[in-house]
Amino acid sequence: MDALEQSAAVQALALVLAENLSREELARASLLLTQLGTTLATIVALCRIWSPRNRSKMGRSTQRLLRGAALCGILKAEVVTMDREKTGGLIASARKERGLTQKELAAQLHVSDRAVSKWERGAGFPDVSLLEPLADALGVQVLDLLRGEETDTPEPEMTVRRAIVLLVRQTREKTRRRWGQILGGLIAALMVGFVLFAVLDRTGVFLRDVSLTVTAAVYTADGAPAGETTVTIDGTRKVVGEKSFFGRFAIACVEPTCREEAMAHIRWDAMEVEGWQDIFYSRAGESLSLGVERMLYITENMQSFGLKLEDGRIIATDPEYVPLLESEYYYSIRPVFGMHS
Fold this sequence. Notes:
Blueprint: H1 3-17, H2 23-35, H3 52-55, H4 60-70, H5 84-97, H6 102-109, H7 113-120, H8 131-138, H9 142-147, H10 157-202, E1 207-219, E2 225-238, E3 244-251, E4 263-268, E5 277-283, E6 286-288, E7 292-298, E8 305-309, E9 314-316, H11 321-326
Antiparallel strand pairs: 1-2, 1-9, 2-3, 3-4, 4-5, 5-6, 7-8, 8-9
Helix pairs in contact: 1-2, 1-4, 6-7
């Protein structure tokens, strides 16, 4: 290979390794590899790894490094063929010489001991970002790991290790950009979802008209039956989000609740507590005290409910509510019994 061909090969490798770097970083990478052109031929030792037999077992970063070397066009140089089993054997023997267990070596590299075991069995190859720390931990050269055997030839450290640094930086930058795009997409989707929900909420898509007349039993404070009453329910129920009802909830035996201006507010999961329901009355933004206690039990279809009056009487569509309302404790439940189809 003449000097012109070698220079072109160096520039090709720089472009492959720094595909997504800035112009300044690309210029520095090209200058570095040009200055080290005399030792660049040693990278060709990686080229033979780029074959269908081996590439399925390597990470994408390692594959791109090898493809870059292959594009240099310097295959006339002496090359070696990588063997995963040989590399695995070298890792195992070097580890044992250092008196390290697989778990201890894995801890130094911040990987699992299963990964180390996989390398030593020849079932996989370390990612390119692990070549330098693995070589340092085992006291061998990076190229020794790729050859699968130790040699006395000094490693062209600046060439191989700087190339690895450039590639790792490029890979991490791509990963950051990819995750940034994913995160940005998720945030945009959430914002669109919130806006869409707000628009639908304001247009009343989640509102349902309610118009019911329900017969309920009246019980004394001791829980004894004391007659019947009717409850007129006429208003709007919100079925999505903060489920609630606004409108008339007129109890015939409680005259103030039947007045035209008395509007009831019922909330499910009241006070942001799941299973709590409450009721309160208002008039033109003014709270009203109409003799009805705040907490009640009511199904979401509003056909089954139980509540307690301030004088102790109980109004309930189902007798199951009575012992709950007689208790001094309010149970956080979402009633389902007595529901009508």
